[in-house]
Amino acid sequence: MTAQTPPAPSFRDPQLPFVKRIDDLVARLTLDERIAILHQFVPAVERLGIAAFRTGQEALHGVAWMGPATVFPQAVGLGATWNDNLVRRVGEAVSKEVRAMRARDERVGLNVWAPTVNLLRHPLWGRNEEGYSEDPQLTSAIATAYTRGLRGDHPTYWRTAPVLKHWLAHNNETNRDTTSSSVRPRVLHEYDLRAFREAVQAGSVAGVMPAYNLVNGRPNHVSPYLREHLRRWTDQELLVCSDAGAPSNLVDSEHYFDTHEEATAAAVRAGVDSFTDHGTDSSTIVARIKDALVKGLLTEEDIDQAVRRQLSVRFRLGEFDPRLDPHAATRDFDTPAHRALAQETAEQAVVLLKNDGLLPLADDVRVAAVGLLADECKLDWYSGTLIHRSTPLEGLYERFGADRVEFAEGVDRVRLKTSTGAYLRVPVADADDEVRGAEGALDPALLQGRTDLPPLTADEHGSELALIDWGEGLLTFRAPDGRYLSVADDGYVRASADQPGGWVVQETFRLEPHGSGHLLKHVGTGGYVSVAADGVKVAEDQREVFELEVVESGEDAVTRAAAGADVVLVFAGNDPHLNGRETEDRTTLRLPDHQERLLRAARAANPRTALVLVSAYPYAVDPTELPAVLWTAHGGQAAGTALARVLSGDVSPAGRLPQTWYADDADLPDLLDYDVIGSRQTYLYFEGTPLFPFGHGLSYASFAYGDLAARVGDGRVAVSFTVTNTSTRAADEVAQVYTRAVDPSVPRPRRELVAHRRVHLAPGASAELAFEVPLSALEFWDVAHGRWRLEPGPYEILVGASSEDIRLRTTIEPPGEPAGPRPVRERGLEAADFDEQRDTLIVDRTKVSGDSVAPAEDRTGELLFRRCDFGDGVTGVTAQLAGEGTLEVLLDGGDPPAVLTLAAPTGPYDYTTVDAAFTASGVHDVRLRLRGPLRLAHVGFSG
């Protein structure tokens, strides 16, 4: 007899639902195998034929960190397109390249960490380039579109599994792992959660990544919001991946827990399923989990729950059904369609901020292209390696002809003279084939980080260097052949970098005055440049004093180029690795002084000067004397071609600003002030005059709006209107729909985006646009009753081309729920549910859940609760307090306050109930004053 082949295990049976297959697989795994799954790098289980797996593949605007790939515009540029359908196509292209690259390299992961949906609340945030918008509706719409493209359309199997970053209220790099974002309930529900919620509810998100920061005193990696909000938005299993190193931060930098076992257990119980910590070495995390199990801090059920969530993603990715996976054979990589899409996206991301008739450029124009960004195609930390490259200068050459374009970069040409009279010299690189491009020229990209290249030396002639000033004293130097000076691990200075970059940038320097000369400090190491017999290097104990000789100033070069041109285009902006990036916030909205000087020089030489900003974030510039201003984010591989087509009029610009551009630093709140309502942040609440408003963007065409109709019914508002192209040029228009509560009882947005659509219209053509706006879009979070509420009264429907360019308006009166007073006699007052506050912070009530309120350091904090109903009367007040200090409870305009004092100091989580006499009846506003290092959780009333 022939032995029968044993049946395949149930987890291999595609006829069974995923949940049963996962149960079967979990039951077959040993405890050690299950624990190992909780680290980012999951080992193979060879006895079951299960491959290794890792969470995490960066794919913010193309496949990153894995070599050449199609590079699309930065995320803020995708937001500037205001085009959901386009962004979905970008997501599809990126996910196809992920699959194609994985077929060649198994290190490429299918669990992609993208997109970033943190709101661009504050324009000085160093990672502004990674988000889509300051507005939650636009952010969620673009994020949903991108994740749908990443996921694919198959009902069962996903092309990639997107993870949203970074949960939650993360908008500063300064001390990002130790600062706490104080987020009151209205801001939490109406602003920060909303950007995540709508994308998750759309069904194309596999999970989230918690942010490094704390929210209301509690680290995001042990946030109860993962359980209380995120996982209630969907029936689908959601994977929570930690940010890199964040689990260890819970002890090492945040000191929130005493031991790593406690911290790891708390993170697992809060809902973290995958630990990105200690790189590829899982042993430390595994040991912590095992110790936590032994100590009873975790149970096997806790482990299994996290394992199931991870396996759910792997099953959806088709790992266990390779013959059924419709995406397994995907090989679309750097296709003509992807290249065309990169260009189309870059074109749609360009925003025309001002135009007094200078643009578009005539075909026979003579152009001066000047500035630091004129011949650059900059990448950022989350870019892939360029396969194709187009700078603005190259795009202008291609469009107008090289003979009609004059170029001046505007950098200072300098020589560095040593104390002995010698000059720094860049030796000729070894011309072996390994560092040559296709046509035999030295390829700087192939030289990056090479230590076999000769270091700089010093001789009587030296080399002329390009000194690029990026502002605030941060400098880079470029050799005559285009290579940047860089410092390798051995400390020697070489011309070996294609561009500044890396987690620690090794290509930046500062000149520090010293006697009659300068010291040259290397920023990456903190050492100083010295000259030795074996070459130029960075040392701690030796410092060369240099004399800076300027051969030609950048302003002179710009003046010369501008004087002979019909039109001058000044390309200004930032390098995404410098002065504003991950780990480093900006300090100002202003352009760097050197770039301001170049702009003034160009304008003085030729009044027909346009400013073209290529940047990852907004600037405060004075456009008064400039006939035209454009902005685009760093546009990826096709940035230059796209800009040239817009400048020439081949494409009419239709990008729109995804965030407010402020006129001055004084318009900005503190970077760490997350209360967008109280401090009047973003276009939603800002009461000043912006430089350029949210949603702003001009066109070469003109459009008329008409026929607005709005009808309330069936839980939504049906809004329709027409848009007509009244020009002779085909172009896109971005129609925007806002709402405004006319007479709200609480502070509400000045106007709030509820719908948008980008449409293409031929000359004279009209389109009727129709939107279904749910009435929930008009609700606000009622802190008095702890729920969403639609307030009765009139609401305006505003339609136009920006948040400030409103063309049509009408008023509706949907059915609402009247406000009732706070039932404080029955429920008391939760401290964090205030209506207004001054000098307070929300802090953690316990390490697991709940909020309290504390006064800001060395200040007296005050909370206001409006319309508190005491019924027939109360005679006493109680408060749950921790720490030390006093609480004063008073009615507006009433008797002297009741004072509650802690008799003895307690720990921050050791609450004591303190009482005092207090008389009130009817409805009153209540003020609470907190003095000293006090924590207030709850106030109750009795009698």
UniProtKB/TrEMBL annotation:
SUPFAM superfamilies: (Trans)glycosidases, Actin-crosslinking proteins, Beta-D-glucan exohydrolase, C-terminal domain, Galactose-binding domain-like
Domain Fibronectin type III-like as annotated: residue spans: 733-803
Domain of life: Bacteria
Domain Cellulose binding type IV intervals: 822-943
InterPro entries xrefs: Actin-crosslinking (IPR008999), BXL (IPR044993), CBM6 (IPR005084), Cellulose-bd_IV (IPR006584), Fn3-like (IPR026891), Galactose-bd-like_sf (IPR008979), GH (IPR017853), Glyco_hydro_3_C (IPR002772)
GO molecular function: hydrolase activity
Keyword Hydrolase applies: yes
Keywords: Hydrolase, Signal
Keyword Signal among record annotations: yes
Family label: Belongs to the glycosyl hydrolase 3 family.
The protein, known as: Glycoside hydrolase family 3 C-terminal domain-containing protein
Organism: Streptomyces cynarae
